[in-house]
Specification:
Blueprint (H helix, E strand, L loop, with lengths): L9 H13 L3 H21 L19 H18 L3 H12 L9 H24 L6 H9 L5 H15 L4 H13 L1 H4 L5 H17 L3 H17 L3 H14 L5 H18 L2
Helix pairs in contact: 1-2, 1-3, 2-3, 3-4, 3-5, 4-5, 5-6, 6-7, 7-10, 10-11, 10-12, 11-12, 11-13
């Protein structure tokens, strides 16, 4: 994949990373993240950041703390590499944002970013461990999620991915967090969190299917379909349709009728 990223400023690159994440363009994220890291490092070194604190990020033409860009670029790259199955390089990225205290920073915002990425690095290490089958870290990761509400939904996605891959039950975990997920449903349905929300429902359907609970699996997939249509999430819709078709032979007449009605609604919305 070739992207012409020359001349694009740091905050525009951040926007590109966010858009690429929504589209699950993992290859593009790696390229853009490397460009962002290089761009912000040039800014840092040009302003003698190695020798003296950068006093005001606005002076540098940045919207955020300089620590944020170092952390965000490597965090997104690490996630993209993990999604591509490259866990070793993902861990290498984690090491780069686990300790950003080497950056000369004097503002409270900078220090908060350093601590934030240290926390996220620990969490993402747990994620890779779980996806590699190291279930022993599950309790520690759940404790992290209990204390970090904003990470709860993406965290449960990782838990579901691991439980589906290695075939173990997380019923008690899902039951514990369901009330919080339900109470934050409107927040999760915002543009920023649509992919998390629909992926959670989709994976929940896969989990129920893996646990031989086909009825709940199909009902959950129908929920995922409705949600993806309402939220205009094409990626989520494609995943949900594929899963429903795999499970079609287990569907009741009522579930098949619901599926048909969802498809009819889409046709009517798009006209003849």
């Amino acid at each position: 994949m070739k992207l012409d990223l020359d001349g694009i400023q740091a905050d525009s690159l951040v926007g590109m990373l966010k858009a690429s994440y929504t589209l699950e363009n993992w290859e593009g994220i790696v390229l853009i993240a490397d460009k962002l890291y290089s761009e912000i490092n040039n800014i840092y070194e040009t302003n003698e950041g190695r020798h003296a604190p950068v006093e005001n990020h606005n002076v540098l033409g940045l919207n955020r703390s300089i620590v944020y860009y170092f952390g965000y670029s490597m965090c997104l790259k690490g996630i993209a590499l993990r999604k591509q199955g490259n866990n070793s390089e993902s861990r290498a990225c984690i090491k780069k944002y686990a300790e950003l205290g080497w950056i000369n920073a004097i503002h409270e915002e900078d220090l908060q970013e350093v601590e934030y990425y240290k926390s996220i690095a620990k969490a993402n290490t747990y994620v890779i461990d779980l996806l590699e089958g190291k279930i022993v870290v599950l309790d520690e990761y759940i404790d992290f999620l209990r204390n970090n509400k904003d990470e709860m939904l993406p965290g449960l996605i990782h838990v579901l991915e691991s439980s589906i891959k290695y075939n173990y039950s997380v019923d008690s975990i899902l039951a514990e967090f369901q009330g919080v997920i339900d109470s934050m449903s409107e927040y999760y349905k915002t543009k920023r969190n649509i992919r998390y929300y629909n992926d959670y429902i989709y994976l929940l359907g896969k989990y129920y299917s893996k646990r031989e609970n086909k009825a709940d699996a199909l009902n959950t997939v129908l929920n995922a379909l409705t949600s993806s249509v309402n939220l205009k999430d094409d990626i989520g819709f494609k995943k949900a349709v594929a899963l429903f078709e795999v499970l079609r032979e287990y569907a009741t007449l009522i579930q098949l009728e619901q599926y048909k009605n969802i498809m009819i609604t889409i046709i009517e919305k798009n006209g003849s």
